[in-house]
Amino acid sequence: GESVGLHLPTLSVQEGDNSIINCAYSNSASDYFIWYKQESGKGPQFIIDIRSNMDKRQGQRVTVLLNKTVKHLSLQIAATQPGDSAVYFCAENNEAGRRALTFGSGTRLQVQP
Amino acid sequence: DAGVIQSPRHEVTEMGQEVTLRCKPISGHDYLFWYRQTMMRGLELLIYFNNNVPIDDSGMPEDRFSAKMPNASFSTLKIQPSEPRDSAVYFCASSLPPGGAYGLYGELFFGEGSRLTVL
After folding, report:
1. Are residues B11 and B19 in contact, defined by beta-carbon separation less than 8 angstroms?
2. Do B101 and B25 touch, CB atoms closer than 8 A?
3. Cβ atoms within 10 Å, residue B117
4. What is the per-residue pLDDT for A73?
5. Which of A72, A88, A91, B94 could tie A67 with a disulfide, CB 3.0–4.6 Å?
């Protein structure tokens, strides 16, 4: 099912290549960041998270980089597979004491076989 | 191990009708969130509960929207009366409390969503 905007940025990569999805955030006070993956017709699924006192965190085939100087977050996916095709959202916790995430608009990743 | 369960998955209704969306969080999770996803606005937090108590409802659009959590295993989001602009996918999510060395937040587990169309 359609879950995101018609004008969603799209990244198209070949299977086996590495993917880099970028996200800019606006609030320098944000202290926690998270990446979610959303496949068509499904709810967002957690990928990886990072606190603001770190600049890099690695998971299985994924790495998140945080550059607080320019308020930029990226998600790197190694050896991209067709199953990685989805919309990817970054989210931030930017209100102290309020346990809520603000989601970005998303990037669609298309993996070409 | 069941995830977050939402019902109905799809609902089509006419303007002015009452809509009730239901959510069963993961057992043991004491935070529950309702999000709305639209093409124009993306994912927006509507309200969240902790231990069945509403903590923050500042995202609820207007008085036509209400949410309840009568017990730890059930929550409802009600729209009365519904309007065409309420058409969206409504997600429920649950989580454990923050904790541990990393634990500012705690991973949110989302349900599959309820797609609402108001004609």
Report:
1. yes
2. no
3. 14
4. 94
5. A72
CA B30 to chain CA mean position, Å: 14
Instruction: Kindly report the nearest CA distance between residue A45 and chain B, in angstroms.
Output: 7
Paired tokens of A2: 């359609």
Mean pLDDT of B5-20: 97
**Backbone angles phi and psi of A83, in degrees to 5:** -70, -10
Task: Give the pLDDT confidence score for residue A4 in this predicted structure.
Answer: 38
Tell me the pLDDT tens digit for each residue of B61-118: 889 999 999 999 999 999 999 999 999 999 999 988 765 444 456 678 999 999 999 9
Please state, in angstroms and rounded to a whole number, the distance separating the CA atoms of residues A53 and A44: 25
With an 8 Å Cβ cutoff, are A99 and B55 in contact? Answer: yes
C-alpha B45, offset from chain centre? 8
pLDDT over threshold 70, residue A16: yes
The stretch B30-49 carries a mean pLDDT of 92
Distances (CA, A) of B71 to A95, B32, B76: 27, 11, 11
CB neighbour list of residue B49: distance below 8 Å, 6 or more residues apart: B31, B32, B33, B55, B67, B69, B75
Contact A96, A29 (CB under 8 A): yes
Please name the residues between 26 and 45 in chain B that touch chain A, using a CB distance below 8 Å: 31, 33, 37, 39-40, 42-45
**Strands B65-71 and A32-38, bridge-based pairing:** unpaired
